[in-house]
Each structure stands twice: as structure tokens, then as C-alpha cells.
Amino acid sequence: MSTAPGAPALTGSSLIGAADVLPAGVGFHAVDPVSGTELEPVYGEAGPAEVERATVLAAAAFPVYRRTTGDQRAAFLESVAAHVEALGSALTERVTAETGLPAARVAGELARTVGQLRLFATVLRDGGWHGVRVDTPLPDRSPLPRPDLRQRSVPVGPVAVFGASNFPLAFSVAGGDTASALAAGCPVVVKGHPAHPGTSELVGRAIRAAVVDHGLPEGTFSLLHGTTHELGTALVADPRIQAVGFTGSRGGGLALVAAAQRRPAPIPVYAEMSSVNPVFLLPGALAARGPATAATYATSVTGSAGQLCTQPGLVFALDGPDTDAFVTAASAAVAEVTAGPMLTSGIAGALDRGADAMAATAGVDTVGQGTVDPELAFPGLPRLFVTDGDTFLTTPALAGEVFGPTSLVVRVRDVDQLRQIVGGLEGQLTATVHLAESDHDLAAELIGELELVAGRILVNGWPTGVEVGHAMVHGGPFPATSAPATTSVGTRAIERFLRPVVYQDVPEDLLPPELHRAADVPALVDGVRRS
Amino acid sequence: MSTAPGAPALTGSSLIGAADVLPAGVGFHAVDPVSGTELEPVYGEAGPAEVERATVLAAAAFPVYRRTTGDQRAAFLESVAAHVEALGSALTERVTAETGLPAARVAGELARTVGQLRLFATVLRDGGWHGVRVDTPLPDRSPLPRPDLRQRSVPVGPVAVFGASNFPLAFSVAGGDTASALAAGCPVVVKGHPAHPGTSELVGRAIRAAVVDHGLPEGTFSLLHGTTHELGTALVADPRIQAVGFTGSRGGGLALVAAAQRRPAPIPVYAEMSSVNPVFLLPGALAARGPATAATYATSVTGSAGQLCTQPGLVFALDGPDTDAFVTAASAAVAEVTAGPMLTSGIAGALDRGADAMAATAGVDTVGQGTVDPELAFPGLPRLFVTDGDTFLTTPALAGEVFGPTSLVVRVRDVDQLRQIVGGLEGQLTATVHLAESDHDLAAELIGELELVAGRILVNGWPTGVEVGHAMVHGGPFPATSAPATTSVGTRAIERFLRPVVYQDVPEDLLPPELHRAADVPALVDGVRRS
């Protein structure tokens, strides 16, 4: 791993405010998932002392950082984006070395990462995030006057962000949770994912540089490295932390939720956890374009070695010749895929166990399988399974997530069985319907049910590839997330780190600027929108 | 207890959909808190069978009720208001008999109750509640096209509402939680508070009449009577229930939160629990109008026998002659108050224990005490206590809520001690500052801290009396509520029972009407507000 000119050298340190901190004791290395070799340097394990130091600094930064204006924070986020971009090939090469993700994916993820930082800058400049609502006073109202009521949103306080293994940039150190929390006015303490500590350090140093450039308190941002559950639990339990953003496994998310609930003062944990992203192939769509759909399906299943939260792990189709043709084409497409590397040996092992268990389930057939490069340290074998609706309904494990490039096609007996299956689905990030004109009635019924199950409904597409915008929802009912009323992607994510406060009869000179009578911010005034 | 002509006779039944259900076994009576006598009829204890029956009906109603239009639900809520109003003196007399609240308070609460139902009707007709966001497609964008993304909010499903003891109308069967959940499109199962079952039955029958008038499914609304914790826990644990609204004690709220977290699929509990509503009397205000402030303070402390969530239980003032004068005037004002009845013997007992403990605390003086009518069954003795800042800081119990007509004035040594006290406050529904021009700098600092502690900041008023409007926030950090990002009063309360869903590339004829391209609803289109 070479370092590009101008990019910081990796030190293995946690970044706690302005200080590089390399705790004594055992450390850990990143591992190249292609070769299986350890990557330098060694990263020190942060512990309770480092958590305390980072959160004390974050709490000290909060009174200053929360009072920065939206314009100031917009400029800061844009500066973070610029510093991340300036890392250039030093960053993308390290991402590739630590994750094995293909170059095009890394480039796309980098663009998304800086793009969402800049998108939050536009949100901050717009001012709608203040959530201003005004009820004007009615001093002569009988029997009691109406007071002057002015509502705005305030940041909740220091936020803990857990980097995701599968998005080393877009949902890691300067990813969506960090961007939305910083946008809201909350200092951030990131626990970097131990699978990509070098990527985390590079990006962390870029954020720190922006903190320095903008004269912000050092505790506005810290990055802790570590591999232990204790580190994460200590961070969530710390009384200075006021909210948590997490993307990862169901077990990990639930452990953090439990830790947050055990606190003397519980806090919200926004955990994005588990989704199999069901897809429904309706008869008209299969008849019109089944084989073409099979090809794009295989791409969505196996891209990034299937390590995407929105990977389509379950496909439902009514049994019949068109479904046979789809399965044949999908099997052939999967067979042409060469296994990519999984992010870690642990994830690779979990994939093998999960896929082997599915293959061994009575009533499940393995109909397609990719190839493995024998040189690959942690291969993720693409596999396509098929079962029938009766087996699916009587084998609850088949509805669970297998993280990686596998998918299960369920041949459904009839529409009644399809209804039964839909009625039993757990909460999902996405649900997809492939349809043609002739499928209208069934599609309408299905979408009407799926909107109760998922945060995003797609038609004639694939759920992988999440657009970052104003309208996106990356969320959904439990177990997809722990907070179904929110999204972790898109501009509404800022709401997770804000809380409304109303000021009653507070004189103008004691009100925050956005609540002044002449303030030029979007507001709801006596129930009427003012832009 | 007479029944007015036209008002339904009380039966003691739970109202489960269209059926009156009177479970066998022991029942309970309401008790007149003035006389201590039991009021007829006997109310049957609902149990698991009734929970099951009500939630099954609610789940069956949901697919129909959630598809009603905003206009249809607006008309339904207005019909509920009209049916409640039509109960006339039968309702207000029963409220008085069951709660001992004064007639003016009951009349005001009735007006608030029907007013908030009608306010939610205006919200529904406005359409902003749909939360529409649209990102228009960019089919030619490189490297990937942007899909068509259309976000709206959907109701979460059947909601359990727990009636509050202290708001027999405005936060009970047809109160704020019910109004906001019904507005959102969620069927409601209310567990009525056992202290006012007759009031609950009357109001429940009014809602049922509106359900019938509007041809809605019977399961849109049910009312269960009962006194046991098991009933509440069973309701929260029921898999058909998707969210919970609760107003009551900290212990009760935390028990429901725990029950909701133990579910296989946890759900949000919106619990409004505990607040002492600190008030800060700044030097300029005390000098200018201390005695006048003392009179309004005593009214706020003892009104409704102090049984209001926003009752000011703690007052902080810098020690000195003006504070002496305030305490003297407040003591005199409290001494003139005759004890009103507490809502229940349990609440009266808790008040006596809490106030006795405070009176017995070393460093705390009882400086004012009202009088008790010896005929009163459950009197709530008004008491005013004074302590000093050192005692307050070293006696954490003094910062806890004593529900009833008591309050504690803390003589604070200096501004530094005031800062220390503010830094240690728990989350609150409200925080109040009394100030004059000369207090500007201290007030600015104080408000800057209090906005992190409370959901509502008031200047030169008293927190009792919550305005229901678009800008109100009745909420705050733990332990004031379990969900600090939300409000239980005001139009934003509807958001607690909604969840965003985005529709990606869904054809127009499969989209809900509010997402059609020509829809005339408020929306954020490509980040720009459209009214």
C-alpha cells in the first residue's frame, strides 16, 4: 500500500479531537480480502479511556458547534467533501485493498459520499431544516389570550456513528449518518468499522482538516478504532452521547438498542439492520421479458458480491412455464459470474454457512452457481436457489437474510398463496414489483400491501443502488430498521438528530435568528406555509 | 348521577367495535373524590380475550380505514366532536363527579377536546400531512439515470391509547392521542383510565356513533375498561398494535416501553411521563414585580389541585431581599388556597407521601400551607417549600416530581450555582424564565441552556395551560417523554403515527392520488416547496 503524494501517512491512531491517540496493547490490522494478507499499519484498540476522551471533547464542542449557522455548517460540509476528494488515489486504492470492491464501485461510492455532503449543504442553506412553525399571538382572544408560539428544531447533542462494513465511504466515517448529524449541528464520534481502518483514518483526517480550516472546536469530530463489542457498547452507554446511527447486522443493531435502553436516560438508536428485499415477478412481466429480467436480476444479486443492504434475496413468481424460463435464464446468468471477494473472512464464513443451510433445506434446489477464483482469500460464491411456496411458508428460516451473492426464487402456487406469503413478510427496506399492463389489478393489490411492509416500493427495477435525494426513504418497519418513521439516506435523515422546541412569549432579542419576525426562512405560520 | 335526556345510559361495558362487552367476574366503580362514594354502574374488567377481540377488529378495520381520504377523516373527526358536544351536561356532570375538577376547568377541557378534533380536520384538508416529496426523473443523467421518486406518509397501523387520569377529556378517550392517530389513518384501541370510566364510556359511545354515521368499519375504535397492569401490557404486547400513546407516571410509561421492546417486533411508545417544569425568577423581574408574580405562581401551582403535567414544581431565584419578598407573598397566597380534591385516593396518598418527605428533608422549610375542607374525601393540601441551592444540589430527590399542589423554591447562592443547577436538570416538558430588561444577558445564557432540557421555553408566564396549535411542542428529553423528537399536543402529533414510503418508478395509475403528477397537495419537488 503506497501513499499518494500529499495524502497523510497512515499511523494506526484513533483521532480524538486534535490528537492522534495510539492506545498501548494489542492492535489489529486490516486484511486484504483478495490475498488474505494483513495490511500495515497496526491499529490500536480504543477502550473506555478513549471513549471518555472523545465524548468529553464532543460535549465541550457542542455548545459552540450547535450555534454555528446553517451557512457555516454548509461551508464546513463542503470542505469535508473537498478534503475527501483531495485524497485521490491514496483513498481509492486503500478502499480497494481493504474491501476488494471493484474500482467502478469505489469510484461511484466516493462520488455518492461527497455528493451527499454537498446535498446536506444545500439543505442547510435552504433553511427548511429549522422546522419553523409560528402561531401568532391573539391577545384579545376569549376566554384566554393566545400566546406567541415559535417552534424550531435544535440538535440533540453528540452523536455516535458506527461505520458499516459494506459501505467503506458512503456509510462510514464521512458517510450518511455523519453528514446528517454534522448538518444538524451535532458533534460526531465515529467508531470506524475494523475491516477498513486505513480508509477510516484517511477520511477521518480529511474531516479533521475541515474542522481546523473552519475554526471549529476539535471535539466536533473524533474517530475511534476497535474490534470489540465492548467499545461500541461503551460509546452508546456514555451519558454525553444523545443519539446513535448504525448500519449493520440485526444482532449488532439490537445489542446497541438494548444498551441505549439500559441507560439511566435512554436515547434513540437509528439502526438499519436486516432486509431480504422481496421481489415479485408478475405473470405479464414474465411473459413479456422474463429472460431479460433474469439477466438484470443476476447482476443485482451478485454486484459488490451481494453485500448490499438492498440486495434482492427473495423472488416470488407464480409457478408456470414463464417462471421456468426465468429460472433457467437466471441460473445461466449466475453461472457466468465469478465470485468476488467478501469483505471479511467473517462475512465470507457467514455466507457459506447461510447458503449451505439453504442448499441443505428439504424442498430447496440449487439451480445456479458461479465460479470461484482459487487464489481468492475470502470468496463469495454466487448461488441461486429455488423452492416452492409450501416449503417457503413452512420453513421460516428461508425468509431470513443471507448476506452475500445468493438469492432464492419461490414458485408460488397461486394468487391466494402469494397473498399468504405477503401477509407474513417481516419489515423490509425495499419491495419490488415487476409488472406489465396486464398485471395492473394484482400489482395494485400487491403495492397496497407492500407499502405496509417496506420503506421503498420499486416497479420494474432492482433495489440495489440507492438514490440520494430529497424523496429517498432508506428505512422500513422492524427488523429493517429500529426506527421506521425515519430514513438513513436522503435529506430527511437530518431529522433524526433534531428535536423541536417551542418558544412561548420570548422577546425578539432573546429568540434565535430564524424565529425573528423578519426571518427569511421557510415556515408554517398559523398553519399556512411561507417559503 | 342523573343522565341527561338523549345521552346514553351508562352500562359498565367495554365498547369493542359495535359490541357492548361486559366481562364476567369482579368489576370496579368510579369513586367521587369529593365524597369518596362509589358511582354506579360497575365496570367490567377487560382481559386478554377483550384485548384480542378489539385488536382483531382494529386490524380488520385498518385496510379500509387507512384508505379513507383526508377529507373523509376530517368529516369523521368533526362528527366525533359534534357527538361529544351533544352529550352536554350528562358528560360534564359525570366528569365532575368522577374527577372533582371545577366546572370551569371541565368546560375549558371540553372545548379543547372538540377544538383539537376540529384542528386535525383542518390539517387533513390541508394535505401537508401527506409529507409529499418528489425527485423528478433524470433519464439522461450519467453515469446512471435518476429514477422517479415519490414519497408520502402512510399510517403505521392500529394504535393503543392510554387515557390519562388528569385529563379526562383532552387526553383520554377522544383526546389528543386518539385524535392524532385517527387523523393519521390508524384505528385506535383505548384503555380508558379507571378513575373516570363513566366519562370514558360516554365519550366512547360518541366516537362509536361517528363511526356508524360515516360507515366506517366497527374496529376503527374500541374502548377497554380495566384497572390492571396486565391489561395495559397485553395491549402493548399484542402483535396487531403498531404504536402506543401514553400520558401518565414515569413508572407506568417505562413499563410500557419495556413491554414494547420485549415484542418480537418492537414498536414505538410515545410516553409523556414526568416533569417538574423549572421556573427561573431573574433579579430584575423579582425587583420589578415579585409579589405580583407570587400570586400568579400560587394559582399555577394549585390550579386543578396541581394535577397538571406542566405544573411548576421547582422555582429558582438568586438569594436576597427580593426573593424573601417573593417567598413571603407566595406563602401568603398559598395559605389562602383551600385544598381541592385529588383525582383518586392513590394520587392523594402519593401526594401526601411525597410532600411529607419533602417537608421532612433536612434543609427544607415549609413556608406556606393551604387549608383543607374536612368533608373532602381525597384532599390535596397545597404546600410551599423553600430550600437553598446547596441542599438542592446534594439532595437529588428534591428534583423529582411530586404530583399535586406543591412547589419548592430554591434560594440560589449566585449565578455560578445557578449554572451548576441548570447543568444537572433532567429533561422537562417546560422551562420558564421571568425576566426584566435588565436580566437580558443572564436570560440569554439561561434560555440557551434550557432549550437543551425542555420542549417548551416560556418567558414571563406559567407553563400550565397548553395551547393546542400548529407550533406547540408538548414533549422534551427523557424522562419528560420517551420520544423527545415528537410532540403529543398540537398538529405535529400526527407525525407519530405516520411513516414515510417512497415509490420508485411506479406508474401513475398505481400511485396513490396524492402522488399523481397533477396532485394539488403541498410538496417538496426537487428540494423546492410547492404549496
Would you mind describing this structure in some detail?
The structure is a homodimer of 531-residue chains. By secondary structure, the first copy, chain A, is α/β, with parallel strands linked by helices. The first copy, chain A, has two domains: 14-273 and 484-496, Aldehyde Dehydrogenase, Chain A, domain 1 (3-Layer(aba) Sandwich), CATH 3.40.605; 279-459, Aldehyde Dehydrogenase, Chain A, domain 2 (3-Layer(aba) Sandwich), CATH 3.40.309. Chain A has helices at residues 48-65, 70-86, 88-99, 103-126, 176-184, 197-213, 229-237, 250-262, 283-302, 321-335, 345-359, 389-394, 415-423, 440-450, and strands spanning 14-16, 19-21, 27-31, 38-44, 132-135, 149-155, 159-162, 188-191, 221-224, 243-247, 269-272, 279-281, 314-318, 340-341, 365-369, 379-380, 383-388, 406-412, 428-434, 454-459, 498-504, 523-525, 528-530. In chain A, the strands form five sheets. A seven-stranded mixed sheet of chain A has the order 2-1-9-8-7-10-11, with helices on both faces. In chain A, strands 15-17-18-13-12-19-20 form a seven-stranded mixed sheet, with helices on both faces. A five-stranded mixed sheet of chain A has the order 21-6-5-22-23, with no helix packed on it. In chain A, helix 3 (88-99) packs antiparallel against helix 6 and helix 9 (283-302) runs parallel beside helix 10 (321-335). The longest helix of chain A is centred in the N-terminal third of the chain and has 24 residues, at 103-126. The radius of gyration of chain A is 25 Å and the shape is globular. At the A-B interface, helix 4, strand 5, strand 6, helix 8 and helix 14 of A face helix 4, strand 5, strand 6, helix 8 and helix 14 of B. Strand 21 of chain A pairs parallel with strand 20 (454-459) of chain B, so a sheet runs across the interface.
